Amino acid sequence: MISDALRADASIDVVGTANNGKDGIGKVKKLNPDVVVTDMMMPEYDGLYVVKEVMKQQPTPVILLSSLDKTTPEIFDALNAGAFDFVDKPQTKDSGAFKGALGKLIEQIKAASGLDSNILKSKDDRVNHNLHSFESNLQYDIMAVGSSTGGPSAVESLVTKLPANLAIPVVITQHMPERFLVSYAQRLSAIVPLPVRMAKRNQQVEPGVIYVAPGDGNMMIKRGNNGAPVFAYSKTKYKEFNNPSVDCLFESVGDEYGSKAIGIILTGMGKDGSNGLLNIKKKGGLTIAQDAESCVVNGMPKAAIDIGAVDYVVGLKEIPGFVMSCF
């Protein structure tokens, strides 16, 4: 069904199909495609093995199709092994859900085509639990991070280099199917020294904690009854992306924290986050965009730069140190 649907798109040429993972690796070497689409669960090598072998033998953007349970970590192992992105399989036979997933897959294929696979391969050492000397009066009170395609690995690269005694909260909005965000937060918790939690409605935003926005709505921050910042859901629907919206988080962070906010926009397709980041900048906060050279997809950072929402453009590996130098 997927092959037939892709062939119906005039801009996509399906050069071959494979019966299993082993057959797929052989076809990649023989046919030299621009993009590989693979299921995660297959006989004769699964999707994770396919990604590892393709990136080792013939680096090519790999898009994963997955219906794995939300507690299964293999999808993130595949992303860290160099996969471009993944598309969640429809959980029902509803034709609308299939068309929606297919539309995203086609969008991802076009974005991945022509990508320099060296960007996907460049995984660096992500363990850095050094301490940082913070002033008693902090210049910033929150760090908000937004990302999409290529974001899971980019976020990991960022948060694993933050100091173990970080004195402000970090709130992450990552475009990802809802059911995978829980396991993503669990993965982050296992590799960083800071506590990692899924953000929940009416939960107070605490310093030194990393929060992951859930995917069942657009998460924002507002002042609670006692004046302390708490998480809440916005009823607003956003043009660029919903559930979760980076614009929603960034706009609220700018409104509530003003000049005490840091906004960071990372790799991703589309324009989500640019307007929210502009709000942070207008309120006097610090705004940073990942540079094009280190992005898997330079869509969201470029959109933010184009509207004047960015103070600094920084390479992914340098962002943690740059942020800490601002305190």
Structural notes for this entry:
By secondary structure, the chain is of the alpha/beta class. A hairpin with a 5-residue loop joins strand 8 and strand 9. Helix 3 packs parallel to helix 4. It is globular and about 60 Å long. The relative contact order is 0.11. The model has no long low-confidence stretch (mean pLDDT 89).
Question: How are the elements arranged and paired?
Answer:
Blueprint: H1 2-7, H2 21-31, E1 36-39, H3 47-57, E2 62-66, H4 74-80, E3 85-88, H5 95-112, H6 117-121, E4 142-147, H7 151-159, E5 170-174, H8 178-191, E6 196-198, E7 210-212, E8 218-223, E9 229-234, H9 246-257, E10 261-265, H10 274-282, E11 286-290, H11 300-306, E12 312-314, H12 319-325
Parallel strand pairs: 1-2, 2-3, 4-5, 4-10, 5-7, 6-7, 10-11, 11-12
Antiparallel strand pairs: 8-9
Helix pairs in contact: 2-3, 3-4, 9-10, 10-11
Features:
7-stranded parallel β-sheet; alpha/beta; 3-stranded parallel β-sheet; 327 residues; single chain; globular; 12 helices
Distance between the termini: 53 Å
Give the strand order, joined by hyphens, for the main sheet.
Answer: 6-7-5-4-10-11-12
Order of helices and strands: HHEHEHEHHEHEHEEEEHEHEHEH
Low-confidence stretches: none
> What structural category do the secondary elements indicate?
alpha/beta
- Rounded to the nearest angstrom, the radius of gyration is 20 Å
Instruction: Average the pLDDT over all residues and give the rounded result.
Output: 89
| Strand composition percent | 15-25%
Largest sheet: 7 strands, parallel
Q: How would you sum up the global shape?
A: globular
Annotation, overall tally of beta strands:
12
| Helix residue percentage | 25-40%
Tally of separate helices:
12
